[in-house]
Amino acid sequence: MNHVPNSKTMNVAFLIYDQVEALDLNGPLDVFVKANVLEPGSYNCFTVGKTKDPVNMEADTMALIPIYDIHTCPQPDMIVVPGANPEYIMQYIQDRDFQETVLKWVENHYDAGTIVFTVCTGSMLLSGTEMLADYDVTTHHMLLDALEQHNPETNVIRNVRYIDQGNLITTAGITAGIDAALYLVGKHLGQKTMNTIIEIFEYQNVKSGNLA
Questions:
Q1: CA–CA separation, 156 vs 149, rounded Å?
Q2: 10-201: CATH, from 3.40.50.720, 3.40.50.2300, 2.60.40.2380, 3.40.50.880
């Protein structure tokens, strides 16, 4: 893995919405936060919601208050799109307002060159957009068939942990988001920083599985 020198702080926006999956959000978030402790100034991480109103995490276990809304957040260099329980994902992809506001915000930034990093069922959330077309993508095993059905122009890959397609990174289920975040930190800051985070996490199950 090549070390790409850090030339500027990367703004990493974590999209949050009602019923967002806890580890989908917090796993990758903590990877980037730890990386910034080790290499100060590497990442500016923040949460973004449709509005600044609180949203509930999965199972209504806690309320999350986004730091920014989609109209006021800093220009993101990367947008992390965590997933949710499949039943909620299927509702969101039919929610016209969510499509025309939140996902349009993601798509507009993607079209302008922002990296989009989906975790777990977060890739399925993008089904109403053009972002997945003509790419290799993956998702949680429970929604692989649905991802194919809703995105006929997309090449759905099974049995991988994550796929890096340049400006689009997608992952398999839940903990695969941690693996991909570690991979991205390694790509950005080098193997040593990635390995230090793995040691700090005491993360025993880190797996490769990138299809570049």
A1: 10
A2: 3.40.50.880
